[in-house]
Amino acid sequence: MRISINRNADTPIYLQIKNQLRDMIFSGVLPEDFLLPPERSLAKTLEVNRSTVIKAYQELKADGLVDSHVGRGTVILSQAAKKLSLMEGYINPLPWYQLFTESITSSNDTIIGDIMAMTGGDVISFAGGIPAPNLYPVKIMEEIQKELFQKNGQELFLHSPVEGYYPLRESISYLLRQRQQITASPKDVVVLSGSQQGLDFAARIFIRPGDTVIVEEPTFFGAIQIFRSAGARVIGVPIDNDGMRIDVLESLLVRHKPKFIYTLPTFQNPSGVTLSLERRYQLLNLAYQHQLPIVEDDPYGELYYGNTPVPPLKALDRHGYVIYLSTFSKALFLGLRVGWVAAPPQVLAKFAHLKQMTDLHVNTPAQLLLDAFIRRGDYERHIALLRQEYAERRNIMLKALEKYKIPGISWNKPEGGFYIWCRLPDNIVRHKLVANAGKRGVVFLPGEAFYPDGTQGDTHIRLNYTFAKPQQIEEGIKYLMQAVRETVAASSEQENKRNIKPLV
């Protein structure tokens, strides 16, 4: 057994001894049950301290390569199991769940992924917040893309600035000014991979584990997931027909001292409610009073079907308290994944820093494509088409709900956005309704997904009217109401059985 020591090496001597013995064990030079030299003897041979050899042997024992017995010494253990496992290609499964962070381990909600998987086959889906595929401006985009390849060539495949392609930021600034009354220069805008990334960045910038975030109740389930993953306690403020209850909010601000308020004030998801102008000013005044940022999520503001909605909070904010998020995903399509944030410079710097660390920049061809789409006037024409088409689909769903209505069910009439918020009969069992509707090929989103504590909303469902084709909407509502009627009847039958007293 030959061991060489390099006393000038950076590797500690005990590790040199251990590594060489390990290699001899693995190569078979030292067979099973081979008795290693006594620690004192090997130390004398190698001219090292005995404690050095002891430490090397301890390392080998910790690796399961040797074992020591009083009176017998240190022996080589069998490596047959290791050799067999390698020969047969078997490796012990990695215990992934022991390695995940606590915030990820505690979050098993796959609702967004489930919605994405519900859109194929013969299913009539009222579940997702997805624009109408048959209205995608494919031919126009194809024409623009051809022009871009001819004009820009290699530029399409180069990187873009972290903050976003500057001409697109100019176009977004134009849209904000002309259509939303928001004064924001191109430098006040950072392009993101959808507004969902903006929510993630806001959480990473502001939230520490244990912090509180105030949201509407109900609210967008994706925001609840993101804030909870950051370690926040999510507190809900109830809404009514005029939006968030500001009187309730005021007491919650004093009690919980949140890091920020998250709101979808225009055609809210899932309720479709719009925060009144009076309450918008009240909300801003509370934010100023408590020095509290507001994260305004506005993916549906362009999609109104009657009068122009009240201005966004960002347009009314004169003191730089509002962080404004929006996206092209609802007005165009989800696949491009392009959104933006407009915020004070200090906040934008943090967003840009996270963008750099996360994915460097948004897809370059998508940015150039959208910029050209806006500059040609195609965006405004497309929005006008969507308002007309989506209003028609909303009306078809409202008429179908009225036609097949059953006692105990009610709904709102949204003035814009994607959704009808439907109240079910009180005695309905939600999971049975999901199953009964599924048998008829209809899917929807249960209401409890939109509540922070998950214990409310079991008597509500969210119905999307933009994704299904117009001819499918009435059919889907008919089947859904059949499922509601069946579920209610079954619940009533079970209740009657429980109330029947046995004869004595």
TrEMBL record:
Recorded superkingdom: Bacteria
Subunit: Homodimer.
Keyword vocabulary terms for this entry: Aminotransferase, DNA-binding, Pyridoxal phosphate, Transcription, Transcription regulation, Transferase
SUPFAM superfamilies membership: PLP-dependent transferases (SSF53383), Winged helix' DNA-binding domain (SSF46785)
One Gene Ontology MF term: transaminase activity
Upper classification of the organism: Bacteria, Bacillati, Bacillota, Negativicutes, Selenomonadales
Name of the protein described by the UniProt record: DNA-binding transcriptional regulator, MocR family, contains an aminotransferase domain
Organism: Sporomusa malonica
Family: Belongs to the class-I pyridoxal-phosphate-dependent aminotransferase family. In the C-terminal section; belongs to the class-I pyridoxal-phosphate-dependent aminotransferase family.
Keyword DNA-binding: yes
Residue ranges occupied by any HTH gntR-type domain in the UniProt entry: 11-79
UniProt KW Transcription regulation keyword: yes
Cofactors required: pyridoxal 5'-phosphate
One family name in Pfam for this protein: GntR
